[in-house]
Amino acid sequence: MFTVLEVTPLKASFRRHSWIPGALALLLSAALPVAAAAQSRDDAQRILVVSFQSADKSLGAKAANAVRDKLGKEFNPKEVWVIPTVDINNTLAASGYPVDEALGPSDARQLAVQVRADQYVDGAVTQTPTGVRIDARMVLSRDQQLAQVLPRVEAPNVDRAAAMVVAAVKAARSQVAGELACYRSFREEKYDVAVAAARKVVASNPNATLAAICLGNAYGALHQQDSVQALGERIVAADPRNLPALTWLAEIYRTKNDPRRLDILKALLAADPTNIRLQQQVVNELASSGQAASAIPFITNLIQSNPGDPQILRTGWLVLLAAKDYDRALKVGEELIRVDTAAADTSYYIKTAGVYTALNRPADATATLQTGAQRFPGNSTLSLAGIQNLIKAGRMAEAAAAARRILAKDPKNANANVLLIQALSSPDEISSAINSAVSAGADPAVLSQLALQQASTAINAAQQTKVRADYQRALTF
């Protein structure tokens, strides 16, 4: 049921810049100082600190440099090698990427893979009235979803704030060996061994999110759903945007029909706003759970962020229909069939006609169905829906003519026979149409009601006229 959330390493490339691997390898080999290379052993763990996000770009680079420098002084380079600033800058410059610009989550991971880091630290730094605030996290390079959120730090200056971040990184790294042991055992399908390794870490450090994620995966492999749920809820309480834990809980709450699932789905959307596939999945689930209205802000953002994407437009159209936001649904539907003419299928015309009907625009509903029927002349559903709208609009002659066109090709079409009866006004024609509908196999209960209505009308007329023929007509019905 649960699997390790792992990203397969990609080719080293940023979204906006391309790499030249051969030249880059030469550049890096030249940039590494001989003394540093001698200090760093092949079996040393490697950690990267990327520029922090900040409204002040220079502040983001300054904070990252301070954390990087202090980390380098805290560890024995034979055990933990902090990737030097010069190596980071050379790698970024080789791709044409600004060295002082903060990276997005995917780009940060790509850089970590490129410089062979086992973990990387990213975050955001904010200037405050009393100094600076840093929100950071330590991420395992093999999967950007495996992150340990570090405690928020506030200090009078960057230097003191960086020292506090370094202390938090050191504490977070205490789980690295245990998490790795759990991960390797999990990959070997030794789930009990993985559980034991992770539990040992969590017992000594209850805030060890990385080890807890591996523990949850191992519990899932052992089908211990209640343990996964308890662990997931504990992780989310400390880290509300933890994707692995949110994913577990979304699935568990679904199987248990737990109403908290909707809140978890919304948290998933907030946690990974750039994941289009996840966004569409969650939006669809919210809509199917009767919570379409709460999905509108998310689908609106998706549509705005991905203009002209037919799949997203269709999802948005369906969500707006489910939420009964009809005016916006019409606009999105029009854009959908503009960018993808194949989307104008029979379902589109029927649903759009239904929207016009709900908006009390019967003429538009009828025109939509007629357009659909012209495009799909062999589709009786569209034609029948169009006849129904003509009857509702009181356009009986047109409805009767349309029904007869269907019956000319398919005399035993029960629905067309019933609609013809409803559209006729002449008692003799109605009587004949009812008999034809009986032969066509139309629903007897429906025909009974239609005949009863005609009989009641004919009796009332006969009582007024006192004419024998009128009574006989009523008796016929």
Short key terms for the protein model shown above:
alpha/beta, six-stranded mixed beta sheet, 6 strands, 7% strand, elongated
**Uncertain parts:** 1-41
Order of helices and strands: HHEHEHHEEEEHHHHHHHHHHHHHHHHHHH
Alpha-beta content class: alpha/beta
- Secondary structure: number of strands: 6
Number of helices: 24
- Based on CA atoms alone, the radius of gyration comes out at 34 Å
Beta-strand percent range: 5-15%
Biggest sheet: strands, sense, closure?
6 strands, mixed
Query: What helical percentage do the residues reach?
Result: 55-70%
Mean pLDDT: 85
N→C terminal distance: 63 Å
Oligomer category: single chain
Shape: elongated
List the helices and strands and how they pair.
Elements: H1 21-31, H2 34-39, E1 45-49, H3 57-74, E2 80-82, H4 85-94, H5 105-114, E3 119-128, E4 131-140, E5 147-149, E6 153-155, H6 158-173, H7 176-187, H8 191-204, H9 209-221, H10 225-238, H11 243-255, H12 261-271, H13 276-288, H14 292-305, H15 310-322, H16 326-339, H17 346-358, H18 362-375, H19 380-392, H20 396-409, H21 414-423, H22 427-440, H23 444-465, H24 468-476
